[in-house]
Amino acid sequence: MSTTKSRPFLLDFEKPLCELEARIDQIRELAQENNVDVSEQIRELEAKADQLRTEIFSTLTPSQRLQLARHPRRPSTLDYIQAISEEWFELHGDRGGSDDPALVGGVARLDGIPVVMLGHQKGRDTKDNVARNFGMASPGGYRKALRLMEHANQFRMPILTFIDTPGAWAGVEAEELGQGEAIAYNLREMFKFDVPILCTVIGEGGSGGALGIGVGDRILMFEHAVYTVATPEACAAILWKDAAKGPQAAAALKITARDLKELGILDQILPEPSNGAHADPLGAAAILKNALISNLEELFGLSPEQRREQRYLKFRQMGKFLG
């Protein structure tokens, strides 16, 4: 069996596990063809595979987690929305002449609760990525997001955002159209909303592009996602004039869910299925749905004033120096 054909987007650290799994499948097929009982050997090899899987995914470096966060088959915002919601209806346009495909959103029901869902959307292949600008939203995208969030606040619908972007679009045209102002305006307005806001980092949370939809009552993050002030490659290019030192920068930036939980940035780390979310998208979606419903139930117990106050204090306390 060719591991390359069965796993076309295989990461380097996954190869030993993939080769062992392929060997198990090959032995099982040969045994069936020759009517030989190898159940005991299969059990031993499967136990070895489970142990190897645990060793690999429990000791990943920040750079390796970044590879998982950027995996081409990792579930996207639309994948999760369609898997966890009912009656999803996408809404378009910022009412200013733009409809950015890099940031999508709309109305839906989550376990019967009317909600507004929105998030960054990357592509599945090169053509789709180009069309969606690799998930890097323009000013129009953030203004569309704000329009949807204002709609949610007006009609008392919780806001669920999904973060997955290397950063906001940094092109000259984006600056001409007010990229910084659009993101800053979103930050200010999100602190004012009365309704519950849940923000989940589902893949790559980068720079102000992530923050533009990242102010919430609760910040959730998948265990192999990353959240950072700048991409490790950009950081390395700035500090060491060498983008190849990205892995060193990734370690220094504290981009992993565990690091961010310890720093008080995150409220909850969502476990991923074995081999990562890309290996079992529906399993990852079920984990996300349960977490969102659980957090919403808690936030519904608070008044709008309590939510606003706690949201403000939550972000004010970030970045405190320890004496």
TrEMBL record:
GO molecular function per UniProt: transferase activity
Keywords on record: ATP-binding, Coiled coil, Cytoplasm, Fatty acid biosynthesis, Fatty acid metabolism, Lipid biosynthesis, Lipid metabolism, Nucleotide-binding, Transferase
Keyword NAD: no
PROSITE patterns referenced in this protein's UniProt entry, alphabetically: COA_CT_CTER
EC number: 2.1.3.15
Compartment list: Cytoplasm
Catalytic activity reported: N(6)-carboxybiotinyl-L-lysyl-[protein] + acetyl-CoA = N(6)-biotinyl-L-lysyl-[protein] + malonyl-CoA
Start and end residues of each CoA carboxyltransferase C-terminal domain: 44-298
Annotated pathway: Lipid metabolism; malonyl-CoA biosynthesis; malonyl-CoA from acetyl-CoA: step 1/1
InterPro entries xrefs: Acetyl_CoA_COase_a_su, ClpP/crotonase-like_dom_sf, COA_CT_C
Coiled coil: 28-55
Tagged with keyword Isomerase: no
NCBIfam families per the UniProt record, alphabetical: accA, AccA_sub, PRK05724.1
Quaternary structure note: Acetyl-CoA carboxylase is a heterohexamer composed of biotin carboxyl carrier protein (AccB), biotin carboxylase (AccC) and two subunits each of ACCase subunit alpha (AccA) and ACCase subunit beta (AccD).
Family assignment from sequence similarity: Belongs to the AccA family.
Protein purpose: Component of the acetyl coenzyme A carboxylase (ACC) complex. First, biotin carboxylase catalyzes the carboxylation of biotin on its carrier protein (BCCP) and then the CO(2) group is transferred by the carboxyltransferase to acetyl-CoA to form malonyl-CoA.
HAMAP family on file: AcetylCoA_CT_alpha
Protein name from the UniProt record: Acetyl-coenzyme A carboxylase carboxyl transferase subunit alpha
Native source organism of the sequence: Spirulina subsalsa FACHB-351
